[in-house]
Amino acid sequence: MDGAVNKKIERRSRQRPDLNEKGVKRFFFSEEQKLPLVFRAEYAGLDLRIWLSENAALIKRELDASGAVLFRGFANTSIEEFNQVVRAWNPELMDYDFGSTPRTNLQAGIYTSTEYPADQEIVMHNEMAYTGKYPAYLWFYCHQPAESGGQTPLADSREMYKMLGQEITQLFESRKIVYCRNYKPGIDVPWTSVFRTTDKQAVEAFCADHNIDFEWVNDEHLRTREACPGVITHPETREKVWFNQAHLFHISNLSEELAGQLAMIPEADLPRNVYWDNGEPMDTAILDKIRSTFRQAKVKFDWQAGDMLLVDNLLASHGREPYSGSRKILVAMQGALTAEPI
């Protein structure tokens, strides 16, 4: 499936009892596209914060089934109201500690989405799958949709696991992935932003607490390595899910232009890269297969102002399509988890 599935026709794909949904219509964007499930307010003034609290059990069941739920047409259309809705679902928001992309912290726990150039695609990924502590849930809020493009595509992590086949999934289940990051002035995100401090001892303490290997190559150059699984078990549904960023961190993901700019840098000093836990390099053909499978699996919908999207970060990956015009999507992360054994 791909974004062409979305013909902007909102059709109901199944009939169910009311289940305390007065004033809200439930549907998928098409018969074929089962991600996300949409709940649309049918009258003005319906408060999502209240409706969400009253229907939490229903939403959780649907989230476990679909992986992502989109709320559309509710009265909550400000950043502050987004904050209130998110906290109605889970009052504790995660900080973007050890982040890998540039963001702006607007309020406590509320961030801009990744601030990459509009003409660049952000490839599919599960949030913070490159480290041992990651959010259970993601919230997205569309304050301003792009003039064109700018969708946040989704892909079912359970389907990814199945689509990739046993040869690849067993390989990723039998080994861990080592994510190597270099923080140097003028290249990628500086360590002072990643760790949100200028205190090197605080950085070292964070790494020690999170089982991250580190070394100061020089006074301004920090290198970290962390071994993480590539397949994990969802703590509630008990399903195996594809959950890693090997295809994103590997040097083969670089554009030709960026690869050319970094050609003179030793591989060990690249801003980010991945290896197997025994030190062996990853097969680029396998990573290409993963990227092509994500392209097959992802689905898209067009944002509307005021939309709020709840994503189970383990059950569904996300990305960003290139866009034109202004675009403002906010993000919140909740429910810190660590990987469970397969």
Could you characterize what this model shows?
The protein starts with 23 loop residues before the first strand and ends in a 5-residue tail after the last strand. Strands 1-2-3-16-7-19-5-4 form an eight-stranded mixed sheet, with helices on one face. Strands 11-12-10-15 form a four-stranded antiparallel sheet, with helices on one face. A hairpin with a 2-residue loop joins strand 4 and strand 5. Helix 1 runs parallel beside helix 3 and helix 4 packs across helix 10. The chain is an alpha+beta fold. The N terminus is likely disordered. The chain contains ten helices and 19 strands.
Strand content: 25-35%
- Helix-and-strand structural type: alpha+beta
For the largest beta-sheet, the strand count, sense and barrel status come to: 8 strands, mixed
User: Would you tell me the overall average pLDDT?
Assistant: 89
How would you sum up the global shape?
globular
Q: Numbering strands along the chain, what is their spatial order in the largest sheet?
A: 1-2-3-16-7-19-5-4
- What percent of residues adopt helix (DSSP H or I)? 10-25%
The rounded Rg comes to 20 Å
* Beta strand count: 19
Please count the helical segments. Answer: 10
Give the SSE string.
EEHHEHEEEEEEHHEHHEEEEHHEHEEEE
* Low-pLDDT residue spans: 1-20
For the termini, the CA-CA separation is 28 Å
Oligomeric assembly: single chain
